Amino acid sequence: MAAVKFEQAMARLEAIVGELEKSDLPLDESLKIFEEGIRLSKNCLKILEEAEHKIEVLVQDKNGKKRIHAYSSDDAADEPSS
Amino acid sequence: MTVSELTGLLRTSIEQQFSDIWLEGELSNLRAPGSGHIYCTLKDKASQIRAVLFRSTAVRLRFALQEGLQVIVRGRLTVYEPRGEYQIVLDTVEPKGIGALQLAYEQLKERLATEGLFDQDRKKSVPAFPRTVGVVTSLTGAAIRDILAVLRRRWPTLHILIAPVQVQGESAGRQIAEALIALNSLGSVDVIIVGRGGGSLEDLWSFNEEIVVRAIAASHVPVVSAVGHEIDVTLADFVADLRAPTPSAAAEAVVPVLGEIVERLRELKVRLGQVMLRHCAFERQRLDAGIRGVTDVRFRLQEEAQRTDEMVDRLREMVQLLLATGRERVHGVRRNLSGLNPILAVKQGLATVPQLSKRLEGQMGVMLAQHRHRILATLAQLNTLSPLAILGRGYSILQTVPTGRILHRANDVGVGQELKAQLASGRLSCTVTQVFNDSSV
After folding, report:
1. In B, residues 269-298, which contact A (CB 8 Å cutoff)?
2. Looking at this predicted complex, what is its ipTM?
3. How far apart (Å, rounded) are the C-alpha atoms in residues B76 and B91?
4. Between A and B, how many CB-CB pairs are < 8 A?
5. Which range has the worst mean pLDDT, B187-196, B198-207, B251-260?
6. Which of A55, B77, B240, B331 has its CA 20 to 30 A from that of B123?
7. In sequence order, what are the beta bridge partners of B93?
């Protein structure tokens, strides 16, 4: 799931920054995780930028088949008021 | 009159007189055979009456009948002719003190709690960054408007999937349960908000239904409940992975503010760069220090070489000084030695010898003269005492031959003894011819 991937990436990124800030890593090790961190931060931003805003409605038609259609304020009118 | 006729008359009479009565009592002897009818006894301290709850009425009961429950019932009296017993056919059963819904709620809550459906360790954690949020609620209520507004404001690029349901009424519970199952089956939903706006206990009742509670418990996708207002707590709230007091709060709970996350990401990226730069600078410093160290060593080596040269020079000087001193000392010794040279002594001695011999000779001359004088004097003395001097006056000395014994008496020798006679000048050899003993001459 994308959400989990993003969460893990963020957590890993935080961990990398924390680890680097402790600065007891040898230089080559630091460079390695630094590169990983840069890659992660780019990926995370990309995921955020790529996400597309959409609101959909999951409905069941008369045959009992489920379908998804875009949400519009008309949908509210379709439903009997509760 | 037959028994049947009497029973028939009683039945008609009782049914007419007690066609609609309210009764209060305690439930006991509960029996629910396969038919679906429920039989029990209602009693108070002194009396009891049989009661029956036919299946059509029993299924409408919202709570479970329990032994000992104080109830208020409404019904009609009748007579069960085969046994000649009168009984009350129940129409309505209400628990005394609390409402039926309340009791049903308490009963179901207890049962599901015993099953462990509300246990904390069953609860799934709600993802921090959902991409798709499912919403199970009515499309017409205030809840959906609130939820959509908050979600859009916090995370404008969120994918929202609404599963519209009725949130009250007969079929609401089933619809809510089916919507949960449908959203789960999609596989792309990260978290589900299920709820509705505020209302009475009856309005919220669907969220206390067992079918809803079990659907929430069975959901693989974490479920956030948002039913009514803060004071309303439904069983859906107990079983949900997270309970939000209101629909708006549920929306706030499921998504962070996108701007804040972007900001945090940027900040992390900046910190990443800064910390790496610092690290590199630090390593650079260490490298510089290392290079300086090497230079220092070279410099020190040069210094050491110089010092060594100096030392060698000083050593050489010292050796020369030592040699010079030594030479000086040797000269001194030699000088001293030459003063002690025996040849010189010999020479000196040799020089003194003639002197000494001269002195010795002089001394010796004196001594010799003295000795000669003394010897001459002694000799003169000796001369007067010497027998030879006596012999000079005409005497001679006789000695036996060959023993040389000087003869003093004639009897000492016999006739024929050879004798030697010493005279003052020369000697004679004589033989004894006659011995005379008389001393007179």
Report:
1. 269, 271-272, 275-276, 278-280, 282-283
2. 0.78
3. 8
4. 131
5. B198-207
6. A55
7. B73
